[in-house]
Write a structure and sequence with these properties.
By secondary structure, this protein is of the alpha+beta class. It folds into two domains: 295 residues, Naphthalene 1,2-dioxygenase Alpha Subunit, Chain A, domain 1 (Alpha-Beta Complex); 113 residues, Rieske Iron-sulfur Protein. It is built from eight helices and 17 strands. The strands form four sheets. It has a seven-stranded antiparallel beta sheet with strand order 11-17-16-15-14-13-12, with helices on both faces. Strands 4-3-2-5 form a four-stranded antiparallel beta sheet, with no helix packed on it. A three-stranded antiparallel beta sheet has the order 1-10-9, covered by helices on one side. GO terms for molecular function: 2 iron, 2 sulfur cluster binding; iron ion binding; monooxygenase activity; oxidoreductase activity, acting on paired donors, with incorporation or reduction of molecular oxygen. This is Rieske 2Fe-2S family protein. Keywords: 2Fe-2S, Iron, Iron-sulfur, Metal-binding, Oxidoreductase.
C-alpha cells in the first residue's frame, strides 16, 4: 500500500480519536500506546515546535558538546571555536553515520568514525579523504538546526520554517531569569532516567500536585497545595496553606526590594509556545530543595545577596520545566524514545566558582529530586500499565489538575493544526 494512503488512513484514525476526546478528561488510550501516534508526535510536536535541549552551562568551553536524542533524531549541541553555540544534526554528510555517540564531552574537531570525514565544531567540512578533484566541501557541511537561547536555556526547532512565537515568550520570561546569570553557572550533576511510560504521561504527571502527598522529600520544601483553587484546599492541607500565604507575602516583599520578577504568567494552551513562569515561596527555611529548606550551595548564583528567595519555576510546552533558586538551578528535559519509554534528563547547575566538597556536596544537592524523580517514574509506569488495559476509560480531571487539561488541550490543538496542514497539501 502506498505510503500516502497509509498516512491518510492513520490521520483519519487520529481525527476520530481526537473527536472522541471528552474535554476535561484524559486522552484515549492510543495517544499513549500507539506506534502510529508516537510517530505523529515526533513529526507534529517534536518536529515542528520549540523544544528544550540543554543549557549553555553544559557547554562552557569551545569544543564542549552534549548529544540530544529523541525518536530517530540525534543532535549535537556544541560550542564552536569562536565560543558561539551551534546545534547540528549528528549525521555525517558522507553516508549518514553517527558522528558522536550519546553522551557529552569535549572535542577538537568532529571526526566521523566511519571514513574520518572531519568537521569544525561549527559544522564546516574541512577534510574528506580521497575525494574527487572537483569535490566541493562547502556543499557538504553538517546540517544546522534552528535554535534560540533564552537566558542560557537552549531551545531548538527542526522545522524548515520555525514559528516565531518564541521571540515574544523570550521577551516575557527573560526578566525572570536574568539575575540568576545562568551563563555563569556550571554543571554539578546530570542524571538520565528512563521512565517506562509515554512522554505525555511524564508531562501530565509534572503538571499537577494532586499526588504530591506521595513525595515526602519534596514536601519538606515544596508547598503541596500548589495548583489547588483557593476555595478548594483540602482540610488536611489548611495549615500548609497558611504557611504558604505567609511565605508568599515575605517573598513578594523581598522581590520588590531587589527588583526581581515574581508574578505568575500562564499561557499554557492559548499560544503556539505554551508556557508558565512564576517565582514562588519554599517551605521550611525557604532557601532551597533540601530536607530543611536550607541552602545547599554556599556560593550563590549570579550576584544574589540572600538565599531565601524561593524558587523561580518555568514550564514550556512540550518538554521542559525548571526550578531556579538563589543557590542552584535544576533543569528537566523530557525526550521521547518509544511509545512507552521516555528519557528524563535532570541537570543541577551551580555558580561557576562553587567548589565541590567545599561549597556543596553532590549527594545532598541532588537528594530531593533524585528521590522525587524515582517516585514520579513509578507513578508514570503505573499510568502506562493502566492505559494499556482494555478496561481503561479516560477519566475526569479534578480542579487542581487544570494544567494537565491545558497541556492536553495544547497537544490536541497542535495535532489538529498539523493534520490540517497535511490535508491541504
Amino acid at each position: 500500500m502506498p505510503a500516502t494512503v497509509v498516512r491518510h488512513q492513520d490521520n483519519l484514525t487520529t481525527r476520530r480519536l481526537i473527536a472522541e476526546r471528552t474535554p476535561g478528561h484524559s486522552l484515549p488510550a492510543p495517544f499513549y500506546t500507539s506506534d502510529e501516534i508516537f510517530d505523529l508526535d515526533l513529526d507534529a510536536i517534536f518536529g515542528r515546535h520549540w523544544i528544550f535541549v540543554a543549557s549553555e552551562a553544559e557547554i562552557r568551553e569551545p569544543g564542549d558538546y552534549v548529544t540530544v536524542e529523541f525518536g530517530k533524531t540525534s543532535l549535537l549541541v556544541i560550542r564552536d571555536d569562536d565560543e558561539n553555540v551551534q546545534v547540528l544534526h549528528n549525521v555525517c554528510r558522507h553516508r549518514g553515520a553517527r558522528i558522536l555517540t550519546p553522551g557529552s564531552g569535549s572535542v577538537g574537531n568532529l571526526v566521523c568514525g566511519y571514513h574520518q570525514w572531519t568537521y569544525k565544531p561549527d559544522g564546516t567540512l574541512i577534510w574528506a579523504a580521497s575525494a574527487a578533484d572537483d569535490f566541493d566541501t562547502s556543499c557538504h557541511n553538517l546540517r544546522k538546526v534552528a535554535f534560540r537561547s533564552i537566558a542560557g536555556l537552549i531551545y531548538v526547532n527542526l522545522s524548515d520554517e520555525p514559528n516565531d512565537d518564541i521571540d515574544e515568550v523570550a521577551s516575557i520570561v527573560e526578566p525572570y531569569f536574568e539575575q540568576h546569570q545562568l551563563k555563569r553557572a556550571k554543571v554539578a550533576k546530570q542524571i538520565d532516567l528512563i521512565e517506562l511510560g509515554n512522554w505525555k504521561l511524564t508531562m501530565e504527571n509534572n503538571r499537577e500536585c494532586y499526588h504530591c502527598d506521595m513525595h515526602p522529600e519534596l514536601g519538606c520544601t515544596y508547598f503541596i497545595t500548589w495548583g489547588y483553587p483557593e476555595d478548594a484546599i483540602p482540610p488536611h492541607l489548611q495549615e500548609t496553606h497558611e504557611r504558604y500565604l505567609s511565605a508568599e507575602a515575605e517573598l513578594e516583599r523581598k522581590c520588590v526590594e531587589r527588583n526581581l520578577a515574581f508574578k505568575g504568567i500562564e499561557e499554557l494552551d492559548t499560544r503556539t509556545m505554551g508556557f508558565r513562569v512564576q517565582r514562588e515561596a519554599l517551605d521550611g527555611e525557604g532557601e532551597s530543595y533540601s530536607m530543611t529548606g536550607a541552602k545547599l550551595v554556599n556560593k550563590l548564583l549570579g550576584d544574589f545577596d540572600d538565599a531565601k528567595l524561593g524558587r523561580l519555576s518555568m514550564h514550556t510546552q512540550p518538554n521542559f520545566w525548571c526550578h531556579f533558586m538563589a543557590d542552584h538551578a535544576i533543569t528537566f528535559a523530557v525526550l521521547p524514545i518509544a511509545p512507552g519509554r521516555t528519557l528524563v534528563r535532570t541537570t543541577w547547575l551551580v555558580h561557576e566558582d562553587a567548589v565541590e566538597g567545599v561549597d556543596y556536596n553532590v549527594d545532598d544537592l541532588t537528594y530531593v529530586w533524585r528521590e522525587t524523580n524515582a517516585q514520579d517514574a513509578a507513578f508514570v509506569e503505573l499510568a502506562q500499565i493502566g492505559v494499556t488495559d482494555p478496561a481503561y476509560i479516560p477519566g475526569p480531571y479534578v480542579p487542581s489538575e487544570y494544567q494537565v487539561d491545558a497541556f492536553c488541550n495544547w497537544y490536541i490543538d497542535k495535532l489538529n493544526t498539523h493534520l490540517d496542514a497535511e490535508a491541504a497539501e
